[in-house]
Amino acid sequence: MSEASASGLACEARLNLPNLPLYIDRISDRLQSFDADASQEGQRLDFRFAFGGASFDVDRLVMRANAADRDGLARIKDLLATAIEVYAKEENPEIVWTGDFAGETRLAQFREMVVTQVGDLTPHMRRIRFAGEDLGRFAKFGGMHIRMLFPTREVPEPLWPVLGGNGLPAWPSNDRRPLARVYTIRALDLEKGIIDVDFLIHPGDSVGAHWAMQATAGMKIGIMGPVGRPVRLASWYLMGADETGLPALARMLETLPAETKGAAYIEIADDGERQVIDNATGIELHWLPRNGVPAGLDERLARAILSVAWPTGSAFGWFAAEAAAATTVREHWRGTLGLGRDETLAAAYWRQGAAGLMAG
Ligand SMILES: Cc1cc2nc3c(=O)[nH]c(=O)nc-3n(C[C@H](O)[C@H](O)[C@H](O)COP(=O)(O)OP(=O)(O)OC[C@H]3O[C@@H](n4cnc5c(N)ncnc54)[C@H](O)[C@@H]3O)c2cc1C
Questions:
Q1: Which of ligand 1's atoms lies nearest the C-alpha of 242?
Q2: pLDDT reported for residue 2
Q3: Which end of the chain is more exposed for a tag (fewer CB within 10 A), N or C?
Q4: How many CB atoms lie within 10 A of CB 210?
Q5: How confident is the model at residue 120, as a pLDDT?
Q6: Are 186 and 80 found together in one domain?
Q7: pLDDT digits (tens, 9 = 90+) for 176-209
Q8: Ligand 1 surroundings by CB, under 6 angstroms
Q9: What pLDDT shows up at residue 75?
Q10: pLDDT, position 7
């Protein structure tokens, strides 16, 4: 069976990348971490996602994408072009798609959103509600996060991105490009067309926290997404987060199946930052207040994670916090315990002294 025959829409891009065989293992690993099943037939690698398929012909230097609908096709083109951009950065090969929707300039993953409500959950966590149209794709693809595009004092009226011929976002004007930061969709109501985002109000010069402090109903921002790797379903989870990972952790506790077991540790500034989480699971929640230790310098969160014995059976480790803590936990899970990428996800959500981590 040809890889395009299962789905209606298809397109392909020739890759001027003779070194493709050098990168293909890493590309394959990356695509599989987005929940793709991989298989190989001769020189062709096929990837099957829930929403469509992709393939690389390593001999003929062609990559192909197919999907049942426009959103799925756009998602696969974005995953493939991003993988090439990440791993063949130095060769920077031109990617030009031909086939269905090749001339499209509307960026499927972009929406303009309007603030409808602003409220404080705790002294340092502000929840902002946004309304927008056609938000269905933000509940798809297993990604929980968005790239938020903010107007700033320097660029008060940004120009939003369009779709480039390579399948990636293109910016109409560098002078009017908005600044991006990554946030979690804390809650999503497709019928009402709204999303909630929880902003940590942290110290220092900033874009996202600063914008959230000034936010009022009617203000507009852009969002792109969803971004992020899907979390694998397991019957036991070990979770850890500081305030930046708290929105994602809380969303998981509210949506994972009731029979799920495990332990979750959340680092907060002090007891005033505790939130009510409607924990639908059997995962035990532990709050770790820093009580005066500055964010990013308290090692207790990482130590708490390292102290928990890994069970046998279906388990997943999820961790999101400052970069140093994430490195400690990743090295323990991947290095010391030898766990795989499909069993763990330890991510840096911010780094001391660095602005806009992971915002692209
Ligand atoms: C996948 C993902 C999901 C995320 N989800 C959320 C979310 O839902 N809510 C949320 O609030 N954050 C979230 N973050 C973290 C957020 O993107 C970063 O904290 C980001 O730096 C905030 O942007 P900013 O413009 O406020 O600060 P920046 O301009 O990026 O940074 C300015 C200064 O503030 C410091 N800083 C940044 N974050 C913190 C912090 N937490 N504590 C102390 N100092 C800090 C930086 O080191 C820098 O010195 C997420 C990050 C990722 C990767």
A1: 41
A2: 41
A3: N
A4: 16
A5: 98
A6: no
A7: 999 999 999 999 999 999 999 999 999 999 999 9
A8: 145, 181-184, 198-200, 202, 204-209, 228, 243-244, 247, 295, 349-358
A9: 93
A10: 59
What tokens does 118 get? Answer: 């602003």
Confidence of residue 358 (pLDDT cuts 50, 70, 90): confident
Residue 33 lies in a domain: yes
Number of domains in the chain: 3
Has residue 360 been placed in a domain?
no
pLDDT in tens, 81-126: 999 999 998 888 889 999 999 988 899 999 999 999 999 999 999 9
How far, in Å, are 32, 76, 90, 96, 195 from residue 87 at the CA level? 15, 17, 8, 18, 33
The residues near 260 (Cβ < 8 Å, ≥ 6 apart) are: 234, 235, 236, 237, 281, 282, 283
Nearest CA to ligand 1 atom 31: 355
Whether 359 shows a pLDDT value over 90: the answer reads: no
Give a yes or no: residue 201 inside a domain.
yes
On whether both 72 and 50 belong to a single domain, the answer is yes
On whether both 132 and 218 belong to a single domain, the answer is: yes
- Name the residue at shortest CA distance from atom 45 of ligand 1: 202
Contacts of 85 (CB under 8 A, 6+ apart): 168
C-alpha dist (Å) from residue 35 to 74, 80, 143? 17, 14, 11
Q: Is the peptide bond before 18 cis (omega within 30 degrees of 0)?
A: no
Domain extent at residue 288: 236-350
Distance, CA of 60 to CA of 144 (rounded, Å): 36
**Does 89 lie in the same domain as 16?**
yes
* Euclidean distance between CA atoms 164 and 247, whole angstroms: 32
Task: Share the mean pLDDT of the chain.
Answer: 94
Nearest CA owner, ligand 1 atom 44: 202
**Is residue 1 domain-resident?**
no
What's the pLDDT score for residue 341? 86
Task: Verify that 210 and 295 share a domain, yes or no.
Answer: no
**Which of 61, 78, 99 is the C-terminal boundary of a domain?**
99
- Position 1 scores a pLDDT of 37
Q: Distance between CA 35 and CA 314 in Å, rounded?
A: 17
Same domain, 115 and 91: no
Shared domain check, 293 and 214: no
